[in-house]
Structure prediction request, 182 residues.
Amino acid sequence: MKALIIVDVQNDFCPGGALAVPYGDKVVPVINQLSNKFPLVVASKDWHPEDSTHFGKWPVHCVAGTKGAELHAGLKTIHIHETLLKGTSGKDDGYSAFEASNLDFAEYLRKKGVTQLYVTGIATEYCVKATALDSLSNGFETFLITDAIEGVRAKEGDVEAALKEMMQKGVKMISSSELQHI
Ligand code: VGL
Prediction:
């Protein structure tokens, strides 16, 4: 069984947000086209306390309960079965959806009979990569939907390096058009 994870498609990672990813919102229509094709869809949210140590590395973003932490208003949520909250402790970065504090994501997927996880969202070099690599280490066949992700691009080459690392470790690359008839 297949599942789709939508990583951090939140206002603060989209243009106008506190940690805006260039073109972050471009993933929204692509994900909307895909979400009804999967029997199980889960979204993750960065959900930090105001005084998180994570803000030593990054501008303050996705503070729990704020507008910036809400999912992008254009994202279709009717197919989302669960929302994972991560980075909640104030001490952890919470890059991976598998670090969620409100649900053991790996166990949840196993109980539902999921064997393949398809990864989408923001941002390619951080939360998307961490989620895809944790998916592999938890034994799921892992796919990255390459036109449904966007990178921070703090430095040139970061996105390409992240894609290469994921591929070398066993993440399979697929485009949304290849998934139209699953
Ligand atoms: C993220 C940087 C800092 C992400 C989160 O969602 O990829 N990136 N916090």
